[in-house]
Write a structure and sequence with these properties.
mainly alpha
Amino acid sequence: MAESGTPGQPPRDPDHRPGPEGPASAERSANSERPAGPAGSAYAPAGEHRTPDLWTELVKLTDQVATGKVVGGVVPAWRRRTRGERRWPVTVSVVVAIVLQIQLSDSLTRPLPHWLLPGLEIALGIGLNLANPVRIERRGPVIRMASIAMILLITAANAVSAVLLIRAIIEVLPNTMSAATLLASGASIWITNVIAFGLWYWEFDRGGPVRRAEGTVAHPDLMFPQMSSPMLAAPDWEPYFIDYLYLSFTNATAFSPTDVMPLARWAKMTMAVQSAVALAIGVLVIARAVNILK
């Protein structure tokens, strides 16, 4: 029995369903005959789901963060205006630094009077706490200069003590004959060094705490891991003083950047100076103490 169909044409498939004719149909037919593109390319065969290229997605996410666009529907806190951070962590750290400086012996504070620099630091600290008693939200040239002056006094006093201690170790002066006294003095100077440089990082990164809270500076001087990977941090995360204190501590112990990368030149030079001071104090104090204990 002859199959139905138009003479001269191939027999028709019983399951065949007529479809629309035209350019669109021809294009689909052509696409179905194309070979699959290389991995990570923008081309995907029609009707198939292509797994997103991870590198492309990472570049896209980086562009969104750099331009301040939303990430996952939320702008990261360090990119937008937020409330100022609390004052008390900074105050506690400054008080600890002043106490450590006061308990040093007179031989490590000369030629200045023992109470001169700590007294000035206390006066500036009181003024700064009166200007921003709870949160650091008020800014102005006088407040900023007072804050920088306080950090400068802490750093200068600690630098003088560090130089005098290193000189005493090299010249084998009487105040370096006791291992306990030497280690206590070295630890006080080292801890004060961590606090002082933590204050410098905190005060100058993106213009200081008030400017960071306003979210007006787009480019960070210090890149924290939460900034480069915002999907791993809470939407309200932004760097506070404790983060800068941690940065200072790791830089003083590892003598190099760890998880926080310096981007600005001032940050690189500051970290280099801190590492050099911490290394000199640590090596000389420990070496002298071991020599005494032998």
